[in-house]
């Protein structure tokens, strides 16, 4: 049973890291559930404080994930059309790897802003740039924290099974 939980935990963490990039999956909560799997493994000592602190950070970063792209778009003069364009572009970009993942969110934000106001192309470009920067910042933050959770998982597992440590 313990190996099933360990495999499930590592799969959840990697799934969460992938979900940090894809807009449809809740990346950080899934990664945290992978860390929580260690709590149920017999023989592994899990610190309640560590689980609580990582849960709090997961919640804060999940909320920030929705605020950062919106703030980036607003900061550069964008609207909700740019934000929606970024998300749609991200989904479309999945079908055109590897550059589509970076180009399509920007193009989506630009097209969304042009749909809002087709006269002002410079403002649409600036808003698309802000939305794209916000998207990149949020994605980087989630992926970075996902790898931190992976490191914690490996550290706890290695410590309890006397691997490496």
Automatic annotation (TrEMBL):
Origin superkingdom: Bacteria
Pfam families according to UniProt: DUF456
Transmembrane segments: 5-28, 48-68, 88-112, 132-156
Keywords: Membrane, Transmembrane, Transmembrane helix
InterPro entries: DUF456 (IPR007403)
Signal peptide residues on this chain, from the entry's feature table: none
Protein name per its UniProtKB record: DUF456 domain-containing protein
Species assigned in the record: Flavobacterium urocaniciphilum
């Amino acid at each position: 049973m313990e190996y099933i939980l360990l495999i499930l935990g590592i799969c959840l963490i990697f799934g969460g890291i992938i979900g940090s990039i894809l807009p449809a999956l809740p990346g950080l909560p899934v990664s945290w559930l992978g860390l929580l799997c260690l709590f149920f493994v017999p023989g592994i000592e899990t610190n309640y404080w560590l689980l609580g602190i990582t849960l709090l950070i997961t919640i804060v970063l999940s909320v920030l994930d929705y605020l950062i792209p919106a703030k980036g778009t607003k900061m550069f003069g964008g609207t909700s059309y740019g934000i929606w364009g970024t998300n749609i572009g991200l989904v479309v970009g999945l079908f055109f790897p590897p550059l589509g993942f970076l180009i399509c969110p920007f193009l989506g934000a630009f097209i969304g802003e042009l749909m809002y106001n087709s006269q002002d192309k410079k403002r649409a470009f600036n808003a698309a740039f802000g939305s794209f920067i916000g998207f990149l910042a949020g994605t980087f933050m989630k992926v970075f924290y996902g790898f931190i959770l992976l490191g914690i998982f490996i550290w706890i597992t290695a410590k309890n099974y006397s691997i490496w440590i």
